[in-house]
Amino acid sequence: MPVVRLRAPLSELAGGKRELDLAGTTVVDVLRALEHEHPGTRGWILDEHGRIREHINVFVNKEYGQEDTSVIESDRLHVIPAISGG
């Protein structure tokens, strides 16, 4: 299964887990599996239309990923919230 790596504060919403093995064949499949297994993440990564929120970046093996990006068992997904400040 693809490995999903979460950064704070998303890891806190997933019960403190920073790495998770989740099933899926596309980025959005894997993110839906994350929401299913860790309901605290629901709505933080995917919006109500199932799209990645604009303040979230997803990388698949160091390449920018989108909802329809294909993933395989050996892939690593990094889910990174954007940082803002003044």
Describe this structure in words.
The chain has 86 residues and is an alpha+beta fold. It is 17% helix and 23% strand. The chain has a 5-stranded mixed beta sheet, with helices on one face. A hairpin with a 2-residue loop joins β3 and β4. The model has no long low-confidence stretch (mean pLDDT 94).
**Continuous helix count:** 2
Give the integer mean of the pLDDT values: 94
β-strand percent reads: 15-25%
Distance, first to last CA: 39 Å
The major pleated sheet works out as: 5 strands, mixed
Number of strands: 5
Low-pLDDT windows of residues: none
Coarse shape: globular
The helix fraction, in percent, is 10-25%
Order of helices and strands: EHEHEEE
What are the defining features of this structure?
86 residues; 5-stranded mixed sheet; 2 helices
List the helices and strands and how they pair.
Blueprint: E1 3-6, H1 10-13, E2 19-21, H2 27-37, E3 56-60, E4 63-64, E5 76-81
Parallel strand pairs: 1-5
Antiparallel strand pairs: 1-2, 3-4, 3-5
Structure in a nutshell:
This protein has helices at residues 10-13, 27-37, and strands at 3-6, 19-21, 56-60, 63-64, 76-81. With 86 residues, it is α+β, with helices and mostly antiparallel strands. The N and C termini lie far apart (39 Å).
